[in-house]
Description:
Elements: E1 4-10, E2 13-27, E3 30-34, E4 41-54, E5 61-74, E6 77-81, E7 85-87, H1 93-113, H2 117-137
Parallel strand pairs: 1-6
Antiparallel strand pairs: 1-2, 2-3, 2-4, 4-5, 5-6, 5-7
Helix pairs in contact: 1-2
Pfam families: ATP-synt_DE (PF00401), ATP-synt_DE_N (PF02823)
Organism: Streptococcus loxodontisalivarius
Domain ATP synthase F1 complex delta/epsilon subunit N-terminal: 4-85
Amino acid sequence: MAEMTVQIVTPxxxxxxxxxxxxxxxxxxxxxxxxxGHVNIIAALEVHEMKIRRIDDDNHVDWVAVNGGIIEVKNxxxxxxxxxxxxxxxxxxxxxxxAKLRAERELxxxxxxxDNIDQVRRAQVALQRxxxxxxxxxx
Length: 139
């Protein structure tokens, strides 16, 4: 059976290290599906839920909330380097929901001020990350 090694690395260390037969990731250019034997690539990642189908069982899927970064595919070794990443089992959904509410408030305040585009962008990213964590944590 063809397989790949998948590692997700953050500043806190390795967050994921398993063998897989399929990966779905969200890049800046859209979603990309990766199978063993995929051409070597490097791509920028979006804040997105990553789907990893493990080799041990067709129904075994790991979901990981990845907050941007890069993906490198080279000779059936997939490395994701991200600022942060969390597996579905590690996400506290109620905490993520509180972060979403906080980000929505901050976004509304920043849009009303209308003079600080950076503040609006930071609030948008925080909201996007919170929604991503909720989606993955609710799988």
